[in-house]
Amino acid sequence: MTQDLLAALRCDPETPAPDLVAVDAADRLVLDEAAPALAAAGPGEVVVVGDRYGALTLGATDRFGLRAVRAHTDRLTGEQALAANAGRLGLADAVRQHAALDPDLVAGARVVLLALPRALDALDEVAGLVAAHAAPDVVVVAGGREKHMSRSMNVVLGRHFTEVHASRGRQKARVLHASGPRPGATSIWPAATQHEDLGLTVHAHGAAFAGTRVDIGTRFLLEHLDGAVPDAGRAVDLGCGTGVLATVLARTRPGLSVVATDESAAAVASARETVAANGVADRVEVRRARGTAGLDDASVDLVVLNPPFHVGAAVLDTVAPGLFAEAARVLRPGGELWCVWNSGLGYRPCLQALVGPTRQVARGPKFTVTASTRR
Hints:
Layout: H1 2-7, H2 25-33, H3 35-40, E1 46-49, H4 55-64, E2 69-72, H5 76-88, E3 95-97, H6 103-106, E4 111-115, H7 120-133, E5 139-145, H8 151-160, E6 161-166, E7 173-181, E8 191-195, E9 200-204, H9 216-222, E10 234-238, H10 244-252, E11 257-262, H11 265-277, E12 284-288, E13 300-305, E14 310-311, E15 314-315, H12 319-330, E16 331-342, H13 348-354, E17 358-363, E18 367-373
Parallel strand pairs: 1-2, 1-4, 2-3, 4-5, 10-11, 10-13, 11-12, 13-16
Antiparallel strand pairs: 5-7, 6-7, 8-9, 14-15, 16-18, 17-18
């Protein structure tokens, strides 16, 4: 039934896009390459990390009759899609989703299926976790599209495992096999960096965008943030990443409460550690959520946003407008969305249509900061 099952998978609730698919050649190759190990695995001995919409988790579960398969997906939409697909296909009882990338996820695992992340830091964190906490005879079968793979991935896996080799390519996909966890291996994650110029400590897990750096767009917005609704009582850092904007807002405005949201589990874990490290955890609530889900309409005075423009490897022009609409929903009349964006993207007309009158606050060589007032 596996091929029929894979064909039945959906990406919902993901934002549709022409190049967005629920299963690809890399998923199928991972399942084929891992078949001997999966056939020998017992209940609770299989872990899946990074499954986009459930192809690896449900494909393995269906094909080999597995039970108590543990799964972790960084993106909330991927987690929700896996749950929805499992429910529709009658496999919900066979899967245990874990929100956190932590030792409980991989403890005692003998087979780990991994959708290779594009970021080497993300791969390093997963590999280190598996090597330290899975069974001594664990095998890792990690697959991806060849255009997104590099020899550096072999090097990263080699830091944590004694045996690493690549499969033959198939349909522009390839698999890396790793086994033999190195004894005494330690992990650097989460990492931390002190930014003296900002008076800020940033914590980050491997899959968090920009890591412990403060990206140039965020820095540009920070330069102008003092003028953003000075009398605001409640603010939202939408798509908070490592929590830099939320932390600075809370630290510089003692009377302000901030909600920081992101759909990435790595971002949420990073943001919680960042706000704690900077002493503002009592006034910053970090939530894993899609956009502003869970916040009431017209309930905040200020939203700050440095919007992404992609979903995984798919570049989408609908991500930022969707976030603008989310911001508009929760802003009180007269509240403002302060947004930084690459000047070439020309977001101002979209902001005016979705939020309200929009003024340019600053423009640099690459980025523009705008303030949009909710009608």
